Amino acid sequence: MLKFRSQLQIKWDDHPAIMVVGVVDGTSEAIFQTLMSLGPSRSEWDFCFYKGSVVEHLDGHTDIVLKQLYSDWLPWGMKRRDLLLRRYWRREDDGTYGAGYVISPVTEGKHSVVKL
């Protein structure tokens, strides 16, 4: 079971930040697959997700992902963002998953140096 809760932080580097927590019934594997999905079904629960793709599989537990966000959910005047993520995960002996990611913005029309 995965638990979610929502909270709007007033300020985070002068931009609003959102944290969501809720409850989802399902196996660890099914929930993990849902969270890792970058297809159209992701927008059913990730309201700021526009589209995404895996750029490179680094190993069995690490990917480089390009993710685009809808601009509707960003602060006024902020353009749509492309994010380059290094996401990683592990499956524990008890069947649960641990995961995380590192985010680097992609600059439009310019070369980005991404430290991974």
Largest sheet: 4 strands, antiparallel
**SS strand fraction:** 35-45%
Strand order of the largest sheet: 3-4-5-6
Percent range for helical residues? under 10%
Tell me the Rg in angstroms: 15 Å
H/I helix tally: 1
- Determine the mean pLDDT: 75
**Class of secondary structure makeup:** mainly beta
Distance between the termini: 31 Å
The overall strand count is 6
Unreliable residue stretches: 1-12, 111-116
CATH superfamily descriptor: START domain
GO molecular function, one term: lipid binding
Pfam families: START
Protein name: START domain-containing protein
InterPro entries: EDR2-like, START-like_dom_sf, START_lipid-bd_dom
In words, what does this structure look like?
With 116 residues, the protein is mainly β. It has a single domain (7-105), classed as START domain (Alpha-D-Glucose-1,6-Bisphosphate, Chain A, domain 4, 2-Layer Sandwich), CATH 3.30.530. Helices cover 8% and strands 42% of the residues. The chain contains one helix and six strands. The chain has one helix at residues 28-36; strands at 7-12, 15-19, 49-59, 62-69, 82-91, 97-105. A four-stranded antiparallel beta sheet has the order 3-4-5-6, covered by helices on one side. It has a two-stranded antiparallel ribbon with strand order 1-2. The radius of gyration is 15 Å and the shape is globular. The termini are far apart. Residues 22-116 form the START domain. GO terms for molecular function: lipid binding. This is START domain-containing protein. Pfam families: START. InterPro entries: EDR2-like, START-like_dom_sf, START_lipid-bd_dom.
